[in-house]
Write a structure and sequence with these properties.
The chain is α+β, with helices and mostly antiparallel strands and about 160 residues long. The protein has one domain (about 35-150). The protein is about 35% helix and about 30% strand. The chain has helices at about 5-20, 35-45, 55-60, 135-150; strands spanning about 50, 70-80, 80-90, 95-100, 105-110, 115-125, 130. It has a seven-stranded antiparallel beta sheet with strand order 1-2-3-4-5-6-7. The protein is elongated.
Length: about 160
């Protein structure tokens, strides 16, 4: 056989074996921080299933075609009032919505599982929800809510 025939057969053989290399199990991709993972497990273990009204989550980009959003919630009492964290999985990823009431206003913060604040919404009791455009106000309230939940997560 000539060198060109051997070269073509080797190339064809390598091309046939290439898909087998893709069948190996991929490296584990983790989107959770260790603390986020513990909070997810805590909510799944001790939280309750609930439905959230769709208005505020829609402003955060979470929609369920106008229907209520299924969540798993956990609540606790602190010096700043009642704190609630909702675990949302509507977009096939875990996301947190942290919320608490300040007077007649509900402050909601959407965060990923690494606790990066993605969006914040104010929801007055007698009004419509609005995105919080003042970053300082949103960050301050988010940090207060986050510090409460950091104290609740087991295995700090």
């Amino acid at each position: 056989m000539s060198n060109s025939v051997l070269l073509r057969r080797a190339l064809l053989g390598a091309g046939l074996l290439l898909p087998l290399g893709a069948c190996q199990s991929p490296a584990k991709i983790t989107t959770l921080s260790p603390r986020g993972d513990r909070l997810v497990r805590m909510i799944q273990r001790t939280g309750i299933d609930n439905m959230m009204a769709p208005e505020a989550p829609a402003l955060m980009g979470i929609t369920n075609e106008g229907r209520d959003i299924p969540v798993r919630q956990l609540s606790g009492e602190g010096t700043g009032g009642r704190y609630v964290v909702s675990l949302v999985n509507i977009r096939k990823i875990h996301e947190f919505i942290f919320h608490r009431r300040q007077g007649d206003v509900l402050m909601l913060h959407l965060a990923d599982t690494k606790f990066t604040r993605l969006q914040s919404v104010r929801y007055p009791r007698t009004g419509k929800p609005m995105v919080i455009t003042d970053v300082a106000v949103a960050d301050a309230d988010y940090q207060q809510q986050l510090s409460f939940w950091y104290g609740q997560i087991p295995g700090r």
